[in-house]
Amino acid sequence: MAVKSIQLGQVWRNETDGKNYLVTKVYNELFTQYAMLRPADVNAPSAETTRIKVQKSAEGATIPGFAFTQDTQDF
User: Fold this and answer.
1) 33-61 burial, b if ≥16 CB within 10 A, otherwise e?
2) The whole model's pTM is what?
């Protein structure tokens, strides 16, 4: 599911393991946007972050392999 934009604090579900991940940083490198994700659970502060390349299309932005979990896109 595509959203208007990837923003800090959004929660995305990994489609392979079903775990939720929190977007902790979004940044651009030249023409590419990246999102830093960290597991959204009790051990989150000590967990490693994962850098994922954001895919953009006419419908919006998405993180490959992840599904947006929040109902509303009014950010």
Assistant:
1) bbbbbbbbeeeeeeeeeeebebeeeeeeb
2) 0.84
Residue 15 has which token pair? 């489609």
The CA distance from 44 to 65, in Å, is 20
Enclosing domain of residue 40: 11-68
Q: How far is CA 19 from its chain centroid? A: 12
Q: Does 5 reside within a domain?
A: no
Number of domains in the chain: 1
Do the Cβ atoms of 50 and 37 come closer than 8 Å? yes
Among residues 31, 72, 21, the alpha carbon closest in space to that of 55 is found at 31
Model pLDDT for residues 19-68, shown as the tens digit of each residue: 999 999 999 999 999 999 999 887 767 788 899 999 999 999 999 999 99
